[in-house]
Inverse folding.
């Protein structure tokens, strides 16, 4: 936990700044509304973390979220009875897209940047072909409950986020987590020491696909059907993960920090909005964070010895 | 050790961001600037550089005028038509019509495009209808227009992607074939007719005047816009700005939503939290109106007076939640008119030089006549398509 302190520090500073601008934020309801808003991105960040820490990218999540919401609206079509079957189908579809990304990346050795960029285009093309640019159907109130409703004072999305966080933290402490980080750190070494690299990476992509499905269920619930719901999410989520200190290229960073990165990004957007700053600036801010974070990441070797290098080389 | 890098990263992130958020708070038009006492300075910012007083006056005047033509077919009606003779274009059918479409990249254009195709299908004298979709790109539309001139079109319909950039291309086509422009205009006199609803000023004023009527003086108004810098949206806001500036209402924020429902909901939620209560919501387009209304519901507050547009989901919400609402429109039935106009021109019948179509507003009184069950959430009620072949399934609806 200690090594994640910086991002939590940034997050705390931002939260304090929000509370100063908007005292209502300190009340449970105000804070929970913020958690509810941040939950979809935080869950997506948890999924993206697995892929990034294994040394790959998943750019397809934004389009996947859009596809999932559009599919959900079309299949649910306002029918409460269809809610659970459709949720199961969405999760399966997310896992399938992730599996395809993972298998093409590992077995066919196509760089994941290209595979998932291709998947982004395939999904967005398929969605606009299928919907003719205008989504049909509607989500049932039961479906929307997860992104919109509350149990007592606590939003469903906060509970779902809690479950996801518990699961991913457990996963990273289990064998899978260790092999995943080892794969991202040095794929050859991991393979030589018996890690089934292809399998581990494919599972990482499947987890990312699943996180996109959960994110879609929450976002669709939060704001309803839209053909733009996932637009730009892939950049937001990568920014969030990088902001959490996870190193592009893999092998470094914790999932808790990645999730904190998502909260930080959301807090930042909230703060910008509270200060009446144009939403267009969000992209600029994201761009700055991305460049600064990655630049600092690459500066590191000449700065301090990395763990895997013999100290003699640098000192 | 990664430890240090993390700290540096965090510090750097803060260092980049905090000044960023700090230095912009003193913008004069920013929503965070302390609210002025009512009646002195308004928070609506400077008037848009797209604002043209004469157009504004003309559009506001047109709202109360009666259109000529068959009342049950508003797409054939015109307000203040100045007819032009088209005898020199007269030729015998059958005809080959061509259409350079700016894009079909949003639900409004999708509904319009389907309606236009259905209109074409009702005219046996059209033997061929050639269409090129510019996919929202000016450069593609310029080459599309050039390409269509070589296809032997009897008339060319253009829905320009942007006004200024497409003007030379349209001018070049004018010399070879009768040109009909609709939706957005061009800066040239050469098209035979330019078809449009009354326009953005009328749209924006309608919503703002409704709020002036329904919200008590000093009430807090939140204005939600999609994007800055788009002419057709800027006009909507400029008219609303004038209405708000001449009112006792307190515009507490003017925000850009990028047309994103989740973002809209967050912005509205933030404003409710900051101000405790928002008394009215003005929108420059209706696609995210439902999300805005839901933000109030989720905060446990009644939805204040709000304007949307003629999207199905908003009309449904309006009826179900008994909102105090109004829906100015930018009717999609205008996509029928260019086909009708082209056939008139080729038949030698005179047409209005500027074909101002009526631009109805949906109010509580006529809501039920516009709300059609079974249509998809982003359908536009003013499609004028209800009597056409293939309705409702071709528009995504259920029988």
């Amino acid at each position: 936990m200690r090594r994640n302190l910086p991002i939590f520090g940034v997050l705390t500073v931002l939260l304090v700044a929000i509370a100063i601008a908007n005292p209502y934020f300190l009340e449970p309801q105000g804070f929970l509304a913020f958690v509810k808003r941040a939950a979809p991105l935080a869950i997506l960040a948890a999924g993206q973390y697995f892929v990034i820490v294994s040394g790959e990218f998943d750019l397809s999540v934004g389009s996947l979220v859009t596809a999932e919401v559009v599919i959900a609206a079309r299949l649910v079509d306002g029918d409460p009875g269809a809610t659970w079957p459709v949720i199961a189908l969405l999760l399966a579809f997310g896992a399938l897209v992730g599996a395809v990304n993972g298998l093409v990346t590992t077995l066919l050795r196509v760089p994941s940047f290209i595979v998932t960029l291709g998947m982004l285009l395939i999904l967005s093309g398929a969605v606009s072909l299928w919907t003719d640019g205008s989504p049909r159907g509607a989500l049932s109130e039961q479906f929307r409950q997860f992104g919109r409703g509350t149990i007592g004072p606590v939003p469903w999305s906060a509970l779902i986020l809690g479950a996801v966080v518990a699961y991913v933290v457990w996963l990273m402490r289990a064998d899978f987590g260790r092999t995943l980080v080892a794969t991202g750190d040095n794929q050859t070494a991991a393979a030589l020491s018996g890690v089934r690299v292809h399998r581990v990476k494919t599972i990482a992509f499947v987890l990312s696909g699943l996180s996109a499905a959960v994110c879609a269920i929450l976002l669709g619930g939060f704001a309803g059907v839209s053909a733009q719901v996932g637009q730009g999410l892939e950049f937001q989520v990568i920014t969030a993960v990088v902001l959490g200190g996870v190193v592009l290229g893999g092998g470094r960073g914790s999932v808790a920090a990645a999730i904190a990165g998502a909260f930080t990004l959301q807090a930042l957007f909230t703060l910008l909005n509270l200060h009446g700053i144009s939403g267009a600036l969000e992209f600029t801010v994201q761009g700055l964070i991305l460049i600064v974070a990655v630049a600092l990441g690459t500066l590191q070797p000449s700065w301090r010895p990395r763990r895997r290098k013999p100290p003699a080389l640098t000192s | 050790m990664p430890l240090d890098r993390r700290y540096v990263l965090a510090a750097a992130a803060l260092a980049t961001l905090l000044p960023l958020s700090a230095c912009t708070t003193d913008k004069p038009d920013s929503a965070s600037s302390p609210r002025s006492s009512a009646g002195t300075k308004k928070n609506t910012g400077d008037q848009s550089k797209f604002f043209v007083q004469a157009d504004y006056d003309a559009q506001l005047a047109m709202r109360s005028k009666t259109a000529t033509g068959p009342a049950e077919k508003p797409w054939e009606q015109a307000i203040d038509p100045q007819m032009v003779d088209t005898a020199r274009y007269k030729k015998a059918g059958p005809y080959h019509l061509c259409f350079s479409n700016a894009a079909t990249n949003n639900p409004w254009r999708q509904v319009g495009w389907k309606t236009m195709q259905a209109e074409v299908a009702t005219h046996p004298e059209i033997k061929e209808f050639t269409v090129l979709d510019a996919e929202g790109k000016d450069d593609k539309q310029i080459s599309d227009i050039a390409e269509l001139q070589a296809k032997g079109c009897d008339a060319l319909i253009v829905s320009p992607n942007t006004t200024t950039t497409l003007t030379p291309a349209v001018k070049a086509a004018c010399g070879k074939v009768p040109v009909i422009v609709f939706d957005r205009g061009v800066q040239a006199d050469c098209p035979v007719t330019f078809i449009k609803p009354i326009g953005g000023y009328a749209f924006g004023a309608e919503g703002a005047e409704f709020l002036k009527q329904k919200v008590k003086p000093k009430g807090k108004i939140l204005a939600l816009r999609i994007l800055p810098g788009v002419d057709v949206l800027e006009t909507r806001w400029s008219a609303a700005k004038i209405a708000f500036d001449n009112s006792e209402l307190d515009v507490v924020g003017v925000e850009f939503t990028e047309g994103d429902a989740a973002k809209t909901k967050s912005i509205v939620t933030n404003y409710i939290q900051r101000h405790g209560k928002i008394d009215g919501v003005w929108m420059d387009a209706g696609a995210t109106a439902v999300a805005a209304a839901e933000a109030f519901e989720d905060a446990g507050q009644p939805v204040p007076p709000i304007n949307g547009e003629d999207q199905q989901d908003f009309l449904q919400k309006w009826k179900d939640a008994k909102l105090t609402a109004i829906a100015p429109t930018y009717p999609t039935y205008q996509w029928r008119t260019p086909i009708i106009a082209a056939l008139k021109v080729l038949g030698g019948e005179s047409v209005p030089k500027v074909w101002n179509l009526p631009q109805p507003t949906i109010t509580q009184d006529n809501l039920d006549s516009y709300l059609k069950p079974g249509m998809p959430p982003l359908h536009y009620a003013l499609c004028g398509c209800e009597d056409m072949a293939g309705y409702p399934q071709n528009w995504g609806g259920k029988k």
User: Anything to note?
Assistant: The radius of gyration of chain A is 20 Å. Chain A is about 70% helix and 0% strand. Chain A has one domain: 2-298.
